[in-house]
Amino acid sequence: MSFLVLFLKKLDSIQLQQLDLSSNHLIGKIPKEFGILPSLFKLLLGNNNLSRSIPSELGNLSNLEILDLAPNNLSGEIPPLIRELQYLEMLNLSHNRLSGTIPHTFDELISLTKQGQQVSCSDHNTPHREHSIVLICF
């Protein structure tokens, strides 16, 4: 993964907007250096063998709309900082070994998809939001 860390540090200067590293046989932890790519709006790391926890530094990706981390071998809990991603429209964490509950910071989600079934997370008093989020977990 050290090559990937060096690669990410170089990408910071070009204001990368999309990064698809799906199906690249990546192993090890997700580098926290992904958090230094503030212009990124699409990050696809699915279908690898990434392990350990989801780094909280992903919460620094303020323009992120799509985050796909499935399937991998990730464990631990979903970092609450992911909720800081105000433009997030799709978060796929399925087919990992995540534990705990979905953070209560996701209580305001308009829709939740869990194992392919639509589950409503909003109550009738929730105002209309410009961005609804599809959350795919566990």
Would you kindly provide a brief summary of this structure?
The chain is mostly beta strands and about 140 residues long. It is about 5% helix and about 25% strand.
Structure, described:
The protein is mainly beta. It has one domain (2-137): Ribonuclease Inhibitor (Leucine-rich repeat, LRR (right-handed beta-alpha superhelix)), CATH 3.80.10. The chain has one helix at 2-11, and strands at 18-20, 27-29, 42-44, 49-52, 66-68, 73-76, 90-92, 97-98, 111-114, 117-120, 134-137. The strands form two sheets. The protein has a seven-stranded mixed beta sheet, with no helix packed on it. A hairpin with a 2-residue loop joins strand 9 and strand 10 (117-120). The radius of gyration is 15 Å and the shape is globular. The two termini are 25 Å apart. Mean pLDDT is 77; it is low at 109-133.
Keywords:
7-stranded mixed sheet, 7% helix, Leucine-rich repeat, LRR (right-handed beta-alpha superhelix), 4-stranded parallel sheet, 11 strands, 1 helix, Leu-rich_rpt, receptor, 27% strand
